[in-house]
From TrEMBL:
InterPro entries: NYN (IPR021139)
Coiled coil: none
Domain of life: Bacteria
Chain segments carrying region Disordered: 202-226
Any Pfam family hit: NYN
Residue ranges constituting the NYN domain according to the UniProt record: 19-160
Gene Ontology MF annotations: RNA nuclease activity
Lineage: Bacteria, Pseudomonadati, Bacteroidota, Cytophagia, Cytophagales
Organism: Hymenobacter ginkgonis
PANTHER family: HTH OST-TYPE DOMAIN-CONTAINING PROTEIN, SLR1870 PROTEIN
UniProt biased composition (Polar residues): 217-226
Full protein name: NYN domain-containing protein
Length: 366
């Protein structure tokens, strides 16, 4: 008889509408990074998955996620997702790992059992992971009459775990990613695989180091792909570009430091949504305020988003970030990454030829 069962787990309420979600965030992060061959900012895709999972549980299963935990050695991740997770209502558990072992397993199991014995209102346990190490705790949860569901990428989920749980209790993580985000991942992976195949063929032909036309095109395509919103979405406050005390969040690059090939803006379309226009208007106000005698103004993304909170307080954090993505897609701005110490940072550059920029900022052209 299980030692834990002697404590007498309280019965779950009949048809309980409440769920607890346990996310092995480090596992998800490294699957995205490794399987999709090092896409830019894989943590941003992981955040999309968490957000979509919470909404899907509510919309399709009628479950309110009262308890949400995410586990990772966050100090080892190159970007800080704790802020966005916190705003989604997810408590982060920092667990120490190594290069070879994710240490989330034990802490996740402990927390799941604690919730089982202290929260009788929780009827469903959702595990975002797939290691076979979780089989004993999942079996115990089921013996205590709890509903158990596992979310994961099919390639990373243990076959033994699926056999024990049943396919009807498995949710494919790919189905939770927005279609356009999943397509971007698949295209990135396909491009990398094609590039590797071209290099292999060149080596076999004894001409390694001389790129084929296909390899050159693949390299150019990856180099010219636009900077994703992920570059600035999850930038933690302690990882933004360093500033001197009292410095503004606007940069200027001298003319002799400008790149030879100026990046282009996305194809122009009108900005019609009121919140997008307000964001653009506020961006122009900030440029006018701080850009005296600056030839090429660049607004740091992270400080701008914090100030935007005061302008659009009714929007959640992720929607304010999404406004910049929409402005970029409309060709009103572009986002560029800058190298910095101790961390890279992202900046906003305005397209002064865009019709809405000209309308909101008449007489100002750069």
């Amino acid at each position: 008889m299980s030692t834990l069962s002697t404590f007498g787990a309280p019965p779950a309420a009949a048809s309980s509408p409440y769920a607890a979600v346990f996310i092995d965030f480090e596992n998800v992060y490294y699957f995205l990074k490794n399987h999709y061959l090092d896409p830019q900012d894989p943590h941003d895709y992981a955040l999309d998955l968490v957000r979509s999972l919470r909404d899907t549980l509510k919309r399709e299963l009628g479950l309110d996620s009262l308890v949400l935990y995410a586990y990772a050695d966050f100090d080892r991740l190159p970007s800080g997702p704790q802020g966005p997770l916190y705003l989604m209502g997810v408590d982060t558990r920092n667990v120490l790992g190594t290069d070879h072992k994710n240490a989330a397993d034990m802490q996740l199991c402990i927390d799941a059992l604690e919730v089982l014995y202290t929260r009788p209102d929780i009827g469903t346990f959702v595990l975002v992971a797939g290691d076979r190490d979780y089989i004993p705790v999942l079996q115990h949860l089921r013996r205590q009459a709890r509903q158990v569901k596992v979310v994961g990428f099919r390639e990373s989920v243990s076959g033994d775990l699926l056999l024990m749980l049943g396919q009807e209790h498995f949710l494919d993580a790919r189905a939770l990613l927005p279609a356009e985000r999943l397509q971007a991942l698949e295209e990135h992976r396909a491009g990398r695989l094609q590039l590797a195949e071209d290099k292999r063929r060149l080596r076999e032909q004894g001409t390694a180091g001389v790129q084929s036309a296909a390899a050159r095109q693949a390299t150019q395509d990856m180099a010219s792909s636009p900077t994703p919103l992920a570059t600035f979405e999850a930038a933690a406050p302690d990882k933004e570009a360093p500033t001197a005390a009292g410095a503004s969040f606007l940069l200027a690059r001298p003319a002799d430091q400008l790149p030879d090939a100026t990046p282009t803006f996305a194809p122009t379309r009108r900005v019609t949504r009121p919140d997008e226009r307000r964001c653009l208007e506020f961006l122009l106000e900030q440029v006018q305020r701080y850009s005296s005698n600056i030839a090429v103004p660049e607004i740091w993304v992270s400080p701008f988003l914090r100030r935007l909170t005061d302008v659009l307080p009714e929007l959640p954090d992720w929607e304010r970030r999404q406004l910049l993505s929409h402005l970029r897609d409309a060709g009103a701005v572009r986002i560029e990454k800058r190298e910095g110490e101790p961390h890279p940072f992202s900046v906003i550059i305005i397209n002064y030829q865009h019709p809405d920029v000209r309308e909101l900022n008449p007489g100002e052209e750069k």
